[in-house]
Amino acid sequence: MIKMAEQKQYRVKIDFRKCGNCGACVAVCPTEALHLDQIKLSSKDENCIGCEFCVITCPADALALSDE
Amino acid sequence: MNKAYDVIVVGAGPAGSLAAKHAALGGVSTLLIEKHPVIGCPVCCAEAISTTGLTNIVEPDPRWICSEIERVRLHGPGNSKAGIYHPKAGFVLERKIFDRAMAEQAAIAGADVKVGVDALDIIRGNNGDISGVVADDNGRSVEIGARVVIAADGVESQIACRAGLNPVLKPKDIHSSYQYLIGGIELEPRTLEFYFGNETAPGGYIWVFGKGGGLANVGLAIMPTKSPHKKAVEYLDEFIARRFSRYKIIERMTGGVPTYMEALPLYKDNLLLCGDAARVIDSLTGAGIANALLSGKLAGQTAARMVREGISGEFYRKEFLKIKGRELKFYYLCRQIYLKLSDDDVVNILRFVDDIFGEKEITGINPFEVITKIIMSHPKLLTLGRHLLTMN
Ligand SMILES: Cc1cc2nc3c(=O)[nH]c(=O)nc-3n(C[C@H](O)[C@H](O)[C@H](O)COP(=O)(O)OP(=O)(O)OC[C@H]3O[C@@H](n4cnc5c(N)ncnc54)[C@H](O)[C@@H]3O)c2cc1C
Q: Whole-prediction pTM value?
C-alpha cells in the first residue's frame, strides 16, 4: 500500500499490565495491525489506520493510539 | 517441508479438539496444533453449558464438572427479578481441565497433538487449493502439508483472513468482556445469577456463576459502542463491590465475544471454519461452547470424508446449518432487539418471565418458545422485531 504524504503514522500503545491477551482487539482490527502470538499481543504499526476500534473494544483499557 | 497430514486443525479449544478427534476417528492422519504451551490456559470463559449442549456431543466426566445448574436468577433494574427452577439445566465446567481432556480424546482417537505451534499463514498449491500451513513451531519456522485445514483458532481467527475470508467484526458486533475468578464467597448452590440494566452492563449483562467451594466466575460483557469510554473492567469492579462484602480475586481474564456472522462462509475450498472462528455463537447470551463442540465434530467428520471420498466442504455447512441455522439467526435477531431495550422494558420482561416460571419446578425449557412468547406479548418488542426483520 502506498502511503499518502499527509497520512498519519499511528502507533498502538499496549499496556501489558492490563492486557489479558484475549484477542478481542485482533477480531475488530480491519487492517491486521494486531497479532496475538503465544506470548503476547503485538502491533504492526504501519498497517494501523487510526480507526480506534481496538481501543473501544478492549475490555481492560489496555490500548491507546498515538500519532506522533 | 515437515511430515504432511491429511488434516491439520489449528487451535486446541473445544472446537479444534472435537474436530481433530472426529477427523482421526474418520480414519485420516490428523494434526492438532495449539499456539499456547498449555492447553486450556488461558481460557476466557464463564464455563456454563446446557445439559443437551454438552451431552449431545460429549459424555460428562466429574473430572471437569465443577457444579450442576438447577436454578437461574435474573436481576433487573430497581430490584426487579425472576427465577427459573430447572433441575438438570446444565453444568459449570472447569475448562482448564475440560479443554485438555478434549485434546486428550483427540490424541486417543489417533490425532497428533503439538503445543507451542502458532499457525501464521496458509500455503497454496499450484491448483490454488490450500496445501498446508506455515507455522512458528516453538521458535522455528516450519511448513506442514495438509489436504484439509480446519480453522478452530477462536475469536482472533487469523487463518480465515489468510484464506481470503472476512471474519473481521465491527465493534458493534462484539461484546467486550472482563471476568474474575473470586473465592471466599457464599452463594446459593447450583445457581446462575444474571444482572441486567443499562447502568449495570450496557448492551450486555453481568454473570455470577458459582463453581462450588466458595468460588465463582464473576464477569460481564458490554457492547463497546454503547460505552466507548467506560470500560468493561470498571463496570465489573463497581458491581463486585456492591454485590459482595468479602471476596478474594484469584484470577482475572479479558475476552471478546463475537456475534453470529451469517455472511461468513463456514468453508472455502479445502478450509473449514468452526467454533468462534466461524462466529457460530448464540448472539443473545454469548454462549459458544456447545456450538464449538458441534461444529468441531461435524467439521472433523466432513474433513475425513473430504480426504477419503472427495466430498466438498459444503456438506459440513449444510449439516451444521440444518441443526443450528435457524437458532443462530433467531438469537441474532433477539440480540438486536435486546440492544434496544430500556431499563423499563427489562423490568417488564422480568415480571413476565416470573409470571411464567415463578418458583415452579420445570423439567425442560425451550428458549425459542419462551423468547417468542415474551416478544409476542410486548408490542414494543414485536414492532422492533418486525422492523429489524424488514431491514435485514
Ligand atoms: C468472558 C467470556 C465468557 C464466556 N462464557 C461462556 C459460557 O459461560 N458458556 C459458553 O457456552 N460460552 C461462553 N463463552 C464463549 C466461549 O468461551 C467460546 O465460544 C468458546 O471458547 C469457543 O471455543 P473455540 O474452540 O471455538 O475457541 P477457543 O476456546 O477460543 O480456542 C481457540 C484456540 O485456538 C488457539 N489458537 C488461536 N490462534 C492460533 C494459531 N494461529 N495457531 C495455533 N493455535 C491458535 C488459541 O490459543 C485457543 O486455544 C464466553 C466467552 C467469553 C469471552
A: 0.96
Contact B301, B309 (CB under 8 A): no
* Residue A9 distance to chain B (closest CA, Å): 22
Question: For the CA atoms of chain B, what is the radius of gyration?
Answer: 21
Question: What tens-digit pLDDT sequence spans chain B (392 residues)?
Answer: 457 999 999 999 999 999 999 999 999 999 999 999 999 988 889 999 999 999 999 999 999 999 999 999 999 999 999 999 999 999 999 999 999 999 999 999 999 999 999 999 999 998 889 999 999 999 999 999 999 999 999 999 999 999 999 999 999 999 999 999 999 999 999 999 999 999 999 999 999 999 999 999 999 999 999 998 999 999 999 999 999 999 999 999 999 999 999 999 999 999 999 999 999 999 999 999 999 999 999 999 999 999 999 999 999 999 999 999 999 999 999 999 999 999 999 999 999 999 999 878 998 888 888 999 999 888 888 988 888 888 75
Q: How far apart are the CA of B154 and the centre of ligand 1, in A?
A: 5
Contact B83, B128 (CB under 8 A): no
Please give the CATH number for the structural domain made up of B69-87+171-258: 3.30.9.10
Q: Is A49 on the interface with B (CB under 8 A)?
A: no
Check if B18 has its Cβ closer than 6 Å to any atom of ligand 1: no
Nearest to residue B255, comparing CAs of B295, B199, B217, B229?
A: B217
A20/B42 touch (CB, cutoff 8 Å), yes or no:
yes
Q: Which fold has domain A11-66?
A: Alpha-Beta Plaits (3.30.70)
- Residue of B153, B320, B331 to test ligand 1 pocket, by largest number of atoms within 8 Å of CB: B153
Minimum Cα–Cα distance from A64: chain B residue: B229
List CB contacts (< 8 A) between A62 and chain B.
254
Per domain, the residue ranges of chain A are 11-66
A36 neighbourhood in chain B, CB within 8 Å: 156
A25, A27, A60: residue with CB nearest B231: A60
Distance CA B98, CA B150 (A): 21
Say if A32 is an interface residue toward chain B (CB within 8 Å).
yes
- The residue with cell 444482572 is B195
Closest Cβ opposite residue A57 in set B44, B171, B178: B171
> What value of ipTM does the predicted structure carry?
0.90
Q: Are B173 and B258 in contact (CB under 8 A)?
A: yes
Q: Give Cα separations from B147 to B124, B269, B303 (angstroms).
A: 11, 11, 9
CA atoms of B93 and B215, how far apart (whole Å)? 13
**Contact B116/A38, CB-based, under 8 Å?**
yes
CB contact under 8 A, A24 and B168: no
B4-44+96-169+259-328 fold = FAD/NAD(P)-binding domain (3.50.50)
